[in-house]
Amino acid sequence: KAGVTQTPRYLIKTRGQQVTLSCSPISGHRSVSWYQQTPGQGLQFLFEYFSETQRNKGNFPGRFSGRQFSNSRSEMNVSTLELGDSALYLCASSAQGATTEAFFGQGTRLTVV
Amino acid sequence: GQQLNQSPQSMFIQEGEDVSMNCTSSSIFNTWLWYKQDPGEGPVLLIALYKAGELTSNGRLTAQFGITRKDSFLNISASIPSDVGIYFCAGQSLNNAGNMLTFGGGTRLMVKP
Lengths: 113, 113
Description:
The structure holds two protein chains of two kinds. By secondary structure, chain A is mostly beta strands.
């Protein structure tokens, strides 16, 4: 069974640009969550999608957005990139509703210059 | 927002020694998860705990869900060099109807052969 797949693995963008990251969850999983990991702030929750609907949202500015497609694949978008957006962005998939294990992808390393 | 206090922040031990790390919270969680992250990779799920007082093992790893629902610990017995990495605890709140995890700051484990 394939794991969580995130693309691309590495990305370099310039301040002010926008970026789209992709996540394909484990087959059959309907919940996809996104996290930002930085040395200073650790792992922080961005948002969660379940059945194409955003179910939870963390404390990030509106520049961070996401969506989920009918096949459960998810994308997150960051507009007007800032240097502080440089981070490892992790996607996690879960089988169904609440209280289930979350399995992470390898992440996308975003560097903003 | 909620914070998980994970300790110790780092440990440098001799191969063969046992390791213990813990997480505490000011809030109640209904699920505790323990992850290990290697450099450049996403976190890998080690153990999931769902009931207060629950003690669960996975090979040389043992984790417990605190009886107050506000803490959890992870023990690693007879450490080996491949145990090196960063260990994270994560909790899911009782008040959250989705897969939003709050993470501890991590414990960096270093093992001397």
